[in-house]
Amino acid sequence: MPTLLLCIAALAVGCGGPPEDRSPDLQLLATDVHVAVARHTLVLPFVALDHAAGGMSFSLNRKADARHAAQRSTALLQETRDHGRPLALDLVSVTVHSYGASDFDSHRGRLCPRLSRKWARSVCDDSLGVIRRALPPGRSKLIDLARLRLDDPRGPGNCLRDRKHTALPSVPGRGVIVCPALVFGGDEDEFHTAVVRIDGDLGAMWTVWRNGQNGESAEAMAAREGNAIALFVETALGEREDYPKLERGMCPLMRPGI
Q1: 87-89 and 32-37 as β-strands: parallel, antiparallel, unpaired?
Q2: Is 242 left (phi over 0), alpha (psi -120 to 50) or beta?
Q3: Neighbouring-strand partners of residue 181
Q4: For residue range 110-161, what is the model confidence (pLDDT) as tens digits?
Q5: In Å, how far are 27, 208, 227 from 258, measured between CA atoms?
Q6: pLDDT 10s digits, 81-119
Q7: Nearest to residue 131, comparing CAs of 163, 99, 162, 103?
Q8: More confident: 182 or 3
Q9: 3-state secondary structure the chain
Q10: Measured between alpha carbons, how far is 145 from 124 in angstroms, rounded to an integer?
C-alpha cells in the first residue's frame, strides 16, 4: 500500500519562472482530500498534507519541473476527491500550521475563507490558537500500526539503529515513547519517536524531545501531545467535524506555560 508524503509549498507554489508564475493555486490548496489509513476515512485540506516526495527542484529546467509538480498535484486530487472512495494509504504526513505564514503570506487572506472546515479556517487565521498550542509543532504521521515495523531502518519510525524499542501502545489515546530518534545535530538521548494508538490500528507517530517548554519531560510531552493528536483526528479529520468538542478538549492540552 502506498505512502503519502506531500510538500505542498513545492507543489503549489513551484520554484521557477517569474514571480507571477509562482502564485499559489488557492483553490487546489483549499480542496478537501479523502484518504483512508487503517480503514479509517480522513478528510483534510490539500494544504495540510506534507509532501517530501515531490520536493523542491534544483534542476536547470525549473519551468518543466513546476509543470510536472502541478500534474502530480492534479492526479492526486483526482484520486482523493471522492468521499465515497478514499485513497487507501499506509501513512499520511500532516502539518497543522498557520497556512501561508511563510510560503504565500500575501495570499493567506484569500485562502482561509476557502477552507471547508472550521478547524482549518481557525488555524489559518490564528497562528497562536488553542489547536496550534496543543498539537506538536512539527509534522505528525498518521499511520497503520499493523504495518509499522520499528526495526526497519528504511521505515518511518526513524529509530536509532541497534537501540532497543518498546512495544507499540495498546490503549488508545495516550502517547508513549517507543525509541530514541535519529535527528542530525541532536544528542543521542535528546530526541525520541512517540506513537499513539487512536482507534483500532489507526495511530500517529511524531518526534518529542527532552527539556521541553517549562521543563516538560519527553514522556509528559508524548502523553499530552498523543492525547491532542487523537482528539484532533477524531473531531477534525473524521467524515464529520465536531469543532466545539475539539476546541473544548484542546484547552487543557496546551503546552505548559501557555
Answers
A1: parallel
A2: beta
A3: 159
A4: 788 999 999 999 988 776 789 999 999 888 999 999 999 998 888 898 898 8
A5: 34, 18, 17
A6: 667 789 899 999 998 877 655 544 555 567 889 999 999
A7: 99
A8: 182
A9: CCEECCCHHHHHHCCCCCHHHHCCCHHHHHCEEEEEECCEEEEEEHHHECCCCCCCCCCCCHHHHHHHHHHHHHHHHHHHCCCCCCEEECEEEECCCCCCCCCCHHHHHHHHHHCCCHHHHHHHHCCCCHHHHHCCCCCEEEEEHHHCCCCCCCCCCCECCCCCCCCCCCCCCCCEEEEEECCCCCCCCCEEEEEEEEECCEEEEEEEECCCHHHCCHHHHHHHHHHHHHHHHHHHCCCCCCHHHHHHHHHHHCCCCC
A10: 30
Average the pLDDT over each of 37-41, 84-88, 246-250 and give the range with the smallest value.
84-88
What's the pLDDT at 106? 55
55 grid coordinates:
520536493
Q: How would you list the strands of the sheet with 40-45, edge to edge?
A: 40-45, 32-37, 87-89
Nearest to 193 by CA among 235, 238, 232, 163: 163
